[in-house]
């Protein structure tokens, strides 16, 4: 079924799959047991893009907030929050809260205001859910008014139980640089449980196509393009032609958007900046509406979205422009990533705890992660164009 909104999956009434229902019950049991024993705990939900991590988290929040009014419930009168660093996702959760009697907008926050509020009040939350935990800061950040060293550590310090969703292949900035080792070092100090979601719900494609997307987005591998009657996967030699095809899809089915890697200049100074390719020029997203997400506004069909406006959302069709930082290594027959060409300089801010080789590797991983995020947005189709001539030629031969 084609989606009318990019966020409908997060509504509390969304039907969960058997795997999601089982995981939700595991999380509720974990919370009840740890509240009863007064033992702090962390419940980690892992899974790739599109496996329904946020869907489970939204369902959990709705269940907890309804149960907090039932005297016989283990969650009676608990003080619970859902946190997310992604501003577009926060809009979505607040929209949902406005329409649900058991949800309150004030229970949905960004991590730093939550941390500062708990510290100022010298209080502890009962259960804190963290969406997109791979976006949590792992170093201080004056711009975000976070003065400590790790947001997840601080959230745990101010919570009895933390439930978080995590995918290391969606880390997008050095200041929120996570890997499995860093996560496990933090969990080792607490009682924890890790569960995995592995069923793909967003991309309606056969297993060969899903493998093709995963190999490209997580390993940079260029595999032969599979035949798939259920998913419209196309490679384009011309960005303008790709955009016109996307406009047709939007006219037919709605919720079709163009996105690009952060390889084209952009500043938060109120000016208009463009994504440019031969015979193609469109402005970057401006994200001017404080209440409606970028993907759901009709006029954004005339803009180019970024990882920061589209991460976590579903589209019916997505067209992706791979910019100058994404090239091709003919010897290794895989993507070659060039951090010096990446224009999101904020993403690459130096950190003292990483050596130069480690930092260079982290930058390449961030670029690859951004590609992975973009590739996994479309439910029914992906259109792909590369600005690098050698990569474009290789893609067209697959």
Automatic annotation (TrEMBL):
Q: Name one Pfam family in it.
A: SLFN-g3_helicase
For this protein, the record's InterPro entries field holds:
AAA+_ATPase, P-loop_NTPase, SLFN_3-like_DNA/RNA_helicase
Q: Which molecular function terms from Gene Ontology are attached?
A: helicase activity
Record's keyword terms, sorted: ATP-binding, Helicase, Hydrolase, Nucleotide-binding
Q: Is ATP-binding among the key words of this record?
A: yes
Report domain AAA+ ATPase positions: 39-241
Protein name according to UniProt: DNA/RNA helicase domain-containing protein
Q: Which organism is it from?
A: Loigolactobacillus jiayinensis
